[in-house]
Write a structure and sequence with these properties.
Blueprint (H helix, E strand, L loop, with lengths): L1 E9 L3 H9 L7 E7 L2 E7 L7 H8 L2 E10 L15 E5 L2 E9 L22 H17 L7 H15 L5 E6 L4 E4 L3 E2 L5 E2 L4 E7 L4 E4 L2 E4 L5 E7 L9 E2 L5 E5 L2 E3 L1
Antiparallel strand pairs: 1-4, 1-13, 1-14, 2-3, 2-4, 5-6, 6-7, 7-8, 8-16, 9-10, 11-14, 11-15, 12-13, 16-17
Helix pairs in contact: 3-4
Amino acid sequence: MSARHPTTVSLSLEEFSRHGGLAGPHKDGWGIAWYEQNDIRLVKETHPAASSACVRFIQSNPFSSPLVISHIRRATQGPVASRNCQPFVRELGGSWHCFAHNGDLPGIVNDRRFRAVGFRPVGETDSEQAFCALMDALRPAWSSGAMPSLGERILVVERFAAALRELGPANFLYCDGDVLIAHANRRHQSDGTIRAPGMWRLARRCPAGGELAADGLRIASDGKEQEVVLLASVPLTSEEWVPFADGEVLIARQGRIQD
């Protein structure tokens, strides 16, 4: 989620828990990262979201943030362990960077294009290897300690994404505290095929005091007119979500899609 103003978010309703294990296959952990001013909070665990006391706690104690990334894991590489749960976070240039990936990237560890030098994985997943490689690619632009121009950042991410999808399904969300960047590729669909769309998007405007409710997600506009961009692997509401094209990169800033 990218929002114009910090907004109260609940990510742990019954339907979200169903996606996390009661009805879906993703039972190997979950995580939520949200930004608060210049800081980031990260909560993750290996228990299924469907049976998590921590999820229930967050539901009864919702947080306020303009930027949120959440992920429910199905372990394909690396054991079921907290270190392998997403999202992943790293500091670069005085900013917190956050990343979550959905897909499969065989061979990434031995591919020189994604060799991580300045940033090293803590766990064993292809997703964290990809994130560390992205951080290495972004490091020159952030070396001065100041935030690079959006154009510089996007160019690095687009080049990285084009190379990454050569390995396999490479849907990911990346946030540097300023913008939320989504790259969509292919994913396992409900009919068993691997194809686009790898992600869907919904842009909404909420009136003051209004609310946006979706499967496992509730967003309150906190007394101000709110603009929100939601990104998800599948549509979460009956509204008209827009599918991503294969290889599409989208930038969201303060609840608006950037051209």
